[in-house]
Amino acid sequence: MEAVAAAHADPSCMGVVAIGDKGVGTTRLIQECADTIEATGRSVLRCWASSASRTVPFATLLQVLQPEVLAPGPHELPEVFRRAREAVAAEERVVLAVDQLHELDDASAAVVDHLLQTGATFLLGSVSAGVPASDAVRSLWTGGRVDRIDVAPLDRAGMETLLHRALGGAVDGEASAELWTASEGNPFILHELVDVATRNGSLAAVDGVWRALGHLAITGRAAEQIERRLRDLDEAATDALEQILVGGWVGLSDLERTASADVLEQLEREGFVSIRTDRRRVEVGIAHPAIAEVVRRRLSPLRARRLALAHVARVEGHGGRRFDDVLAIAQWHLDASGSAPVATLVAAAKVARTTHDFTAVERLAGAAEAEGGGPVASQLLGEALYELGRFDEAEAVLATAMAAADDTDDEALGLVAGTRGTNLFWGLVDLDQARNVLGHAAERVASTSLSRSLQAQAASFTLWAGEPAKAMAELPELDPTDQRARINSALVRTAALAVGGQTGEAIAIADAAFAEHLALEDMSGIAHPGSHMVGKALALIEAGRLAEAWELLRAGYDIAVADRVPVAKMWFSLLLGQAALLQGSPALALRWLREQVVHARMVGHSHPLRLGLAGVAIGSAYVGDPATSAEAVAELRRFSGPAFGYYSVAVARAEAWSLVAAGRIPEARALLLPAAEAGGRTGQLTQEGAGLYDYVRLGGPPADVAARLAELALASDSAMLQACADQAAALAEGDASALSAVVDRFEAIGCLLFAAEAATAAGDLLRREGDQRNANAQANRAATLAAHCEGANTPALLVTTTVVPLTAREREIAYLVARGLPSKDIAERLFLSLRTVQNHLQRIYGKLGVSSRSQVAAALAGVEGQVA
Prior knowledge:
Layout: H1 2-9, E1 15-20, H2 26-38, E2 44-48, H3 67-70, H4 77-87, E3 94-99, H5 106-117, E4 121-128, H6 135-142, E5 147-150, H7 156-167, E6 170-171, H8 173-183, H9 187-200, E7 203-206, E8 209-212, H10 220-231, H11 235-247, E9 250-251, H12 252-255, H13 261-269, E10 273-278, E11 281-286, H14 289-298, H15 301-317, H16 325-337, H17 342-354, H18 358-370, H19 374-387, H20 391-405, H21 410-427, H22 431-444, H23 448-464, H24 468-474, H25 483-499, H26 503-518, H27 530-543, H28 546-563, H29 566-583, H30 586-603, H31 606-622, H32 626-637, H33 648-661, H34 665-681, H35 685-697, H36 706-714, H37 719-733, H38 736-749, H39 752-768, H40 772-786, H41 808-818, H42 823-830, H43 834-848, H44 856-859
Parallel strand pairs: 1-4, 1-5, 2-3, 3-4, 6-8
Antiparallel strand pairs: 7-8, 9-11, 10-11
Helix pairs in contact: 4-5, 8-9, 10-14, 11-13, 11-15, 15-16, 16-17, 17-18, 17-19, 18-19, 19-20, 19-21, 20-21, 21-22, 21-23, 22-23, 23-24, 23-25, 24-25, 25-26, 25-27, 26-27, 27-28, 27-29, 28-29, 29-30, 29-31, 30-31, 31-32, 31-33, 32-33, 33-34, 33-35, 34-35, 35-36, 35-37, 36-37, 37-38, 38-39, 39-40, ...
């Protein structure tokens, strides 16, 4: 629109033409520009051309000019030109907006050309790319007299921004990926998809996150438009299009055996198919998913069956040499007849497993198992059911398969047992049974390598149950040839070392294991390679390398979305939320944490769900939303079964911050010390440090924890833990200079909320020392830092401009008064008598120079808007 405005203001420019594919928004762009120009008082003549009016002289211009103007005179066109120029000459450069300019009839095109040449009009036109137009019409925009704007489809980021604004909330990665695949950024198709899906419930908000709850079908105007274009195709073109649809990407040389070159060229020219080169092979595929869906709906079952079998014969005739040929062959067989050779089905299921298409794995492996495919088919089916969140079904399949493999095949037993153990621990939350299954298999298999791999997997259960130090001790000694055992062990070591404070070593192990995992030939029954990215990101967060962690997590999340791995999406979104909280961006954190909660619920993983809920509780408390924080904690307390002990301190911190949001700060502090101590006993040193640091942030005497934080920092290489320890020491010693250095350290690692709180504390110390000038400087720094923290409202951000500083108790009471609590409630929450609260309140009034409760909030001169 800015480009059009600039062109309109340029006397030498005759107009602007917007060119793009159907549905990208050329018509809307021209309409908006015309509206904007018209709002300035300039005249705008609007008309539209169509295929029906292309052959009728002056059909388009008759919408804006009187018939007598366009009636042929004695000298034919010159007379029409004269009358048309006179008709629009009332004002200087009337704007002529022509929608679908490429459909203009030649007579109208000649008049428009004349009006442009004489400067009587300024042209705004929309043109659909690739649609034929006459030479007379094309000359309007190909001669260099008008500016050309190529309107492209939205890119992925633009589409997601548009969706967020249109729907008023975050769209989860899977729904976004499906909308992107279906629309490829075409706004018209995107609009139709979202409009229909929101009305029929296949796209709906779940816990504040928009999710795809069903197939996002192409219907409505988009489907009707495609249907109209398909009806114009002759029988040969339709046959070729259906053959391409069923075959996917089909070799051009194969297609040319059944379809003429003219037909294929027509389909490409009209945008139904596209061409790609795959190595030395030229292939043809459907140009857009929307076209594919409409063609598929038109295809009869018998025709689809015949085409599927024809493709089987074609690919088998070539020898089926490509990696995914067996997958295509098996699926065509199932589509055509519902069955296929068992070996083909198993091989195809393995290929689908490598692409993480577990819906396809379930179909293929289920068919293989029904035909007696053996333990391998059962393992693939059980794994697919687990990944799809159907844990009871997976257990039934895997238990039967394990019994069958127990006396026949050690390798099959190990593979089935590993998958069953994963399903039992993560899906059915049965730690004891999971350990029993792995222990039995580890003793039964003859292969030392298999036994070690199973032992390493059992150690991972110990880790996630909350005992990382014990898990490290349970890991078996490894042989350089035990590739799977090394990968399983690395997953344990990375996560255990990360919370043990050895973040550098954890990152190195994750990097090496990721490369080795990608080189693994058979990934059946083992975690996704992205698990190492999760472990590395966890270590980066614990180290305080937040920018690196964020970059890695965004890349991992995008991979998980592209690969359709819901468990990986769950972990990446969780850590993105945790990283955002540490960066001091609670609103951004809540966007990711809410998505993680939805993912965890969808796949039925109650362990990670607890961590997501804990994050939601903390983030909601940060932004002053006690109701949401309390709801998250209430759900946390409803969990039954074995505790998920890894990051158990985070769950206690969630309860504490929920109490803070409710104004019950002393109760919150009381939760933190025992939880932190328990975390430290199991080897979660960084998490112990986080609990102790929260104790300080909530006004606990820093001397209570400074020594222990110093010990933890000494035992760790975490820059963040070191900064936490230094802040506690500086507060305990009353050293404002050291506290100012802590602000620098937190800001350097990107922990802006912690930096703002430390700056607030430094200003308070300086004010107590009578250094009002430097105290004000620290207060200003705190305000600047907190301004980037998305409305965070924590007790440690509370500052005052009074020369006589408030005591710690007075600060607590002032914080609660500012939140609107009556004295009686404050007394109950701080375990004080009502008289004591009132005495403190009178001293607060005197120090702040106010005379009533209503004036306290205004006198608390921290970050603008932080206390209300």
